[in-house]
Structures are given as structure tokens and as C-alpha cells.
Amino acid sequence: MATATTPGNLLADAERSLTAAHVAEQILTQHPTLPIELIHACGTDGTGSAAPLLELVLVDGATDAIADWARAVNTDVTVDQGYLLSAQHRAIAEIDGVTVWVTTYEHDDESED
Asked: Which of 15, 65, 101, 111 falls 20 to 30 Å from 43 in CA-CA distance?
């Protein structure tokens, strides 16, 4: 989905989203075992930049997979404990001008009691 105030801006956002989708194809060709649950692409990176954003959400608990991908693209995984009953693991890289987030969530074992 894209939102804009002019047809030109809408077209630019759609083109950046398409660019992100092509990067997703490239990543999944190079890393076919990534356990993808959801792919999200949008025309801006959410920080005020006009760079496209791609998020690959892995299945819950895929911490080894995200660590392997991060090593392959020479980036780090950050862990944020600020999520209700889970920790977010995220690796961020830039690939062909697209900001890429690879994310998984690890549920707190104590919450299952």
C-alpha cells in the first residue's frame, strides 16, 4: 500500500517498493533457507529518508537463521527486550540502496507457565 498527496509521489513510492521487492527476491535466492513468515516492502525507510525499506520477518525463534544472515552480509543483530513477553532480534543492512531489516521474535519462556 502506498499513500501520497500527488500521483507523481504515489508513483515514486510504488517504484521504491518494487525496488525493495526485487531485493527480497535477490536475498531469498542467495539465502533460500531463511524461514520467512512475512515480507513487507514500502517506499520509505521510516526515518525520513526516501530510501526504500524491506522487512523480512522470520518465524518466531529463528535466532540462528538471523545470526547466519547477519554474518553473511557483515552486520550485527540487535536484541530489544522491550516487547511484551518476547525479545525482538533484528539485523539491518543496506543492499542495492534498500534498507533491509531481518527480524525475528523470541518468546519469553516464563510466559508459558
From this structure: 65
The Cα 58–Cα 70 span in angstroms is 13
**Cell digits of residue 2:** 502506498
> Is 15 within 8 Å of 43 (Cβ atoms)?
yes
pLDDT digit string (tens) for 38-86? 999 887 655 666 678 899 999 999 999 999 999 999 999 999 987 777 8
What is the full DSSP assignment across 5-71?
SSHHHHHHHHHHHHHHHHHHHHHHHH-TT--EEEEEEESS-SSS--S-EEEEEEPTT-HHHHHHHHH
Residue 107 CA to residue 63 CA, distance in Å, equals 11
Which residues, in sequence order, are bridge partners of residue 104?
89
8 A C-beta contact, residue 58 and residue 41: no
- In this structure, the strands spanning 53-58 and 36-42 are antiparallel
22 CB burial (10 A radius; 0-12, 13-18, 19+) = middle
